[in-house]
């Protein structure tokens, strides 16, 4: 096993690791040491929170004379981020430029997102693996059945570990057996999902900056069985990456199953699964259109409030490859710079006017120029000239939004400068519309997968 790991690290005479001061250390020198492979990212809140604990452990073992070496494996997209993250660390790192080593290690240990830790003994045996573990802050003290150590402040998802935030795994795996029937969760489990998801969401910027390839989905509206059909058509996370544009609840019969599954995927694969806020992720809206009644009937009003506290934490827009602007509703006459979105504070409750309101509610209208008040009674409609001006000013190839039913699942506007994507087939059981998912390969290469209504 140890020989295999050294080979994965580039273990011939030319293989080397870096210290934070830039000096090289030969991989061959790791032969008889205890190794900790630490998969991390500067942009990962949990990686950054876990760093001090790992440094403390590292220094503690060194004082005891245990020859323990941590090797950092970076998930960072940019070298500058990696260098900032690695600065002043007491351990070693895989060369950032060596993508082959990164791919080999993540594949070998099935690490799909940071943070993760794999400890390999001097005899080559894996002592304790934390890959596939979701790190979530928890106040409770618990004992890991795998390593028999007591922990406080972190929970790791592991089928052999004793902790109380393994809900994401049960929801995700349970959906396969439950199919359209959904998953049965108790109130405590739903609260834990919402708390864990809220921490992750607040660790993200209000304007997400994402890289392709990624699949963009529009409204789901509680159509849980159709959400499962989308995953079957496109592929499950994290092998298929997703950005959802909001409106997960209301209208459909299984809003709770829908939002719990989406939040569970967010918890488990935070760097491959992204959720934006829609106008139905606001308490003033979802109190009227079905979600409140579903929560009250099945769990009570308090759970509805718990969900809405989580919704207040959702990002409100995203930009893919610097060229595709994604939002639930539309543009705003107040929006002059994307920095205005970046500077929006969260958690943020319902907005009935202003920038947030427009991003969630506004619609394009081919019959007007400029701006007009919306017949929805909130926000505005905007013409093709507004789209063209906004795209030009911000150097955008496309604006992608949701919020409206499209009979074919998607529809272009303003000379293909804007597209509306809707992902709930046969919406409300009466529209007989198709659903669509936009597959983005890069800023200039996108296509649409269409899902027919189920007969």
From TrEMBL:
InterPro entries given in the database record: C1-like_sf, Calcineurin-like_PHP, Metallo-depent_PP-like, PP1_catalytic_subunit, Ser/Thr-sp_prot-phosphatase, STPPase_N, Thioredoxin-like_fold, Thioredoxin-like_sf
Q: Where is the Serine/threonine specific protein phosphatases domain?
A: 276-281
Any one annotated GO CC term: cytoplasm
Q: Does the keyword Phosphoprotein apply?
A: no
Reactions this protein catalyses:
O-phospho-L-seryl-[protein] + H2O = L-seryl-[protein] + phosphate; O-phospho-L-threonyl-[protein] + H2O = L-threonyl-[protein] + phosphate
Keywords assigned by UniProt, alphabetized: Hydrolase, Manganese, Metal-binding, Protein phosphatase
Q: Which GO terms describe its molecular function?
A: metal ion binding; protein serine/threonine phosphatase activity
Note one Pfam family from the annotation.
Thioredoxin_8
Instruction: Tell me yes or no: is Nucleus among this UniProt entry's keywords.
Output: no
SMART domains named among the record's database cross-references: PP2Ac
EC assignment: 3.1.3.16
- Member of which family? Belongs to the PPP phosphatase family. PP-1 subfamily.
- Name of the protein: Serine/threonine-protein phosphatase
What are the leading ranks of the lineage?
Eukaryota, Viridiplantae, Streptophyta, Embryophyta, Tracheophyta
């Amino acid at each position: 096993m140890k020989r295999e790991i050294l080979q994965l690290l580039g273990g011939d005479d030319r293989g080397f690791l870096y210290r934070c001061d830039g000096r090289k250390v030969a991989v061959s020198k790791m032969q008889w040491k205890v190794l900790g492979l630490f998969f991390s990212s500067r942009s990962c809140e949990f990686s950054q929170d876990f760093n001090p604990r790992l440094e403390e452990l590292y220094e503690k073992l060194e004082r005891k004379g245990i020859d323990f070496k941590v090797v950092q494996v970076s998930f960072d997209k940019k070298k500058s981020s990696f260098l900032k993250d690695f600065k002043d660390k007491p351990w070693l790192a895989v060369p950032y430029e060596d993508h082959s080593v990164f791919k080999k290690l993540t594949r070998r240990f099935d690490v799909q997102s940071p943070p993760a830790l794999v400890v390999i003994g001097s005899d080559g045996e894996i002592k304790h693996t934390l890959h596939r573990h979701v790190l979530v802050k928890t106040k409770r003290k618990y004992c890991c059945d795998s390593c028999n150590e007591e922990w406080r402040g972190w929970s790791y998802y592991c089928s052999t570990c004793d902790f109380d935030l393994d809900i994401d795994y049960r929801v995700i795996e349970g959906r396969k057996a439950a199919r359209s029937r959904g998953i049965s969760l108790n109130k405590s489990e739903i609260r834990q999902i919402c708390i864990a998801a809220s921490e992750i969401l607040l660790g993200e910027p209000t304007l997400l900056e994402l890289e392709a390839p990624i699949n963009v989905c529009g409204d789901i509206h509680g159509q849980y069985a159709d959400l499962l059909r989308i995953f079957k058509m496109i592929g499950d996370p994290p092998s298929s990456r997703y950005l959802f544009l909001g409106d997960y609840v209301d209208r459909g019969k299984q809003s709770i199953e829908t939002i719990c599954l989406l939040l569970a995927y967010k918890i488990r694969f935070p760097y491959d699964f992204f959720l934006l806020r829609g106008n139905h992720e606001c308490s003033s809206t979802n109190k009227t259109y079905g979600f409140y009644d579903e929560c009250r009937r099945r769990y009570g009003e308090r759970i509805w409030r718990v969900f809405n506290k989580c919704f207040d934490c959702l990002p409100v827009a995203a930009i893919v490859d610097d060229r595709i602007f994604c939002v639930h509703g539309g543009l705003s006459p107040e929006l002059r710079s994307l920095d205005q979105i970046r500077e929006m504070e969260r958690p943020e409750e319902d907005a009935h006017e202003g920038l947030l309101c427009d991003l969630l509610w506004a619609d394009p209208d081919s019959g007007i120029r400029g701006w007009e008040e919306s017949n929805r009674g909130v926000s505005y409609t905007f013409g093709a000239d507004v789209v063209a001006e906004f795209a030009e000013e911000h150097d955008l190839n496309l604006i992608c939004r949701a919020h409206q039913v499209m009979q074919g699942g998607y529809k272009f506007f303003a000379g293909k400068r804007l597209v509306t994507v809707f992902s709930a087939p046969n919406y409300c059981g009466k529209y007989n519309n198709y659903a669509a998912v936009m597959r983005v390969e890069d800023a200039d290469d996108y296509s649409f997968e269409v899902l027919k209504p189920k007969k």
